Structure formats: C-alpha cells, structure tokens
Amino acid sequence: MSRIRAAFWDPAGTRYGIPTYPWRMSPPHLLTRRQLTAEGLRPGGQGVQAQVMWRSTRHSAPGVRSAYLYDIRFALPKRTATPAQMEALAKANAARRTCPDCHRDAGYVLPRHLGTCLDCAETAEVAA
Ligand SMILES: [Zn+2]
Q: Average per-residue pLDDT in the chain?
C-alpha cells in the first residue's frame, strides 16, 4: 500500500471520526449516494456510514477530496410518484400559474409579491 493510501486507510474511524477508506478500497456494501441512485435506491434515513478519501490531482482543484458512503443494507427503494400524486402536482402548479384577476394561465409561476400576472400588475400600476 502506498503512503498516500495508507494515510486514508482508517476503517475504525480513529483518525477521521468516521470509517475512512482510500480510493477503490471501500467495502462493496458501502456506496455513494450516486451509486445507490444508479441501483434505484436511496439512503433511507441512515446517516453517513463512512467516507472515501483521495488526493485529487485535478489541475483546477487539487487537494484532498472525500465522498460520503452509505450502507446498501439500510438503503430503501427510491420512491416514485403515483399517478394521483403527479396529477395533484400538476394541478397545484397550474394553480400557481393562474392569475386570480384575469383567470388566465400566465405560463409562468406568478410572482408572490404581486399575486397577479405581470400584465394585470402593470395595468393596476398604471391605473393607480
Ligand atoms: Zn392577470
């Protein structure tokens, strides 16, 4: 094991506070969030279990990098929205785009501070 790798070899977490492994040396059941996502999983409320640390030689941002790892055994399936949920979301978003004054779908989410579409807000401002 090279000296750099040895510096990041801390499975007990005595040096870094949490179990730490060098690049490509973490146990197979510990995955990053992205790796879990690729498996259709999410951390599922578990905290960070460990980390991978490596020395980056990337020219723009050299230095020590780390990535948090989660235990696949505690991971849960990703939740996908049900058709009813999708419908409710679409409805809620449509309501956010609909102007209460002219009752038209403005095509954008109405600014909260105006409460109306930009056309109505402008008309009201001119009238005032
Ligand atoms: Zn309007």
A: 91
